[in-house]
Design a protein that fits this description.
- It is a single chain.
- This protein is 42% helix and 22% strand.
- It has helices at residues 12-34, 76-85, 92-111, 146-155, 163-170, and strands at 2-6, 50-59, 62-69, 74-75, 114-115, 124-127, 132-135, 142-143.
- The strands form 3 sheets. The chain has a 3-stranded antiparallel beta sheet with strand order 1-3-2, covered by helices on one side. Strands 4-6-7 form a 3-stranded antiparallel beta sheet. Strands 5-8 form a two-stranded antiparallel sheet.
- The mean pLDDT is 82.
Length: 171
């Protein structure tokens, strides 16, 4: 659950939350439209799923958007902190799993023209049920067209023509 306070329907905080809800709806619509295609992976396997949202307010000056996400057990931040305190090192296979899950989530978003811009440990959650790390925090994401995405990938040093090969390697 995330609560985002805002002071009015024209405020930046409210508009950002609306954009995040829109991006989640875009992902869901894309999946519903293409779920018979075996190459389209269920987005719930890659992203922390937004279950519901609503506006709660006591008065016009005290309002908030409440975002209800699917239930997950822990974040990568809490897991890392627990391991650090217990002096438990990460296994190479665990690190690769985190990287694989995040990469697949980013590639899935890129395929929808969505650029995630807030990837950090506190926005990565672990689902025991799925045994996967899930991306969250689409509040910083934005929609981009193919030319913008290509330009950004080039700036980051990622060759998009090798994207298919990378998917094969990590699958």
């Amino acid at each position: 659950m995330r609560i985002v306070p805002f002071k009015g329907y024209n405020s930046l905080a409210f508009k950002r939350v609306l954009e995040e809800v829109y991006l989640y709806q875009l992902i869901q619509k894309h999946f519903e439209k293409n779920k018979t295609n075996k190459n389209v992976q269920d987005p719930r396997a890659m992203y922390l799923w937004l279950e519901d949202c609503f506006v709660y307010g006591v008065s016009a000056d005290q309002q908030a958007v409440v975002l209800l996400y699917e239930r997950v057990e822990t974040s990568l931040t809490l897991t890392a902190e627990y391991r650090r305190k217990g002096l438990l090192p990460w296994k190479e296979s665990e690190r690769l799993k985190i990287q694989r899950d995040l990469f697949m989530g980013c590639i899935g978003l890129r395929g929808l023209g969505i650029l995630p811009r807030d990837i950090r440990a506190s926005n990565i959650f672990f689902s025991v049920k799925q045994q996967r790390y899930l991306l969250a925090g689409l509040s910083g994401a934005r929609q981009v067209d193919d030319s913008e995405a290509e330009e950004l990938m080039t700036v980051l040093g990622i060759e998009t023509q090798n994207e298919g090969k990378l998917r094969e390697l990590i699958s």
